[in-house]
Amino acid sequence: MTTATRQEVLGLYRRIFRLARQWQAASGRVEDTAREKQYIRHEARTLFRKNKNLTDTDQIKQCIDECTARIEIGLHYQIPYPRPIHLPPMGLTSLRGRGLRSQEKLRKLSKPVYLKSHDEVS
Length: 122
Fold this sequence. Notes:
Blueprint: H1 3-22, H2 30-50, H3 57-77, H4 100-110, H5 118-121
Helix pairs in contact: 1-2, 1-3
Domain Complex 1 LYR protein: 7-69
GO cellular component, one term: mitochondrion
Protein name: LYR motif containing 1
């Protein structure tokens, strides 16, 4: 990992924890705020620890992009949880191949960047 990439990753880590410290739940309830702050901290620690040994620059860049996207979406929608995508079953297959394997492959390819690691951790 280059020094610039390392600084970017550490900056994102600090940004997430600053965000968690200042987070206010959209409902305004103290219990919801505490639960959401805890979720942000736990999710950040889990994902950063999981990816700490990455050496491939493309994978590192993808993780940085995912982190940035999740921060921006969380701030915009005022929810710390990833926004799920709703696709109807068999809605992505072409007219020729309506097999389950092709459906699973297309779903994986169509997953937004901010949800790439969500299924692995949850």
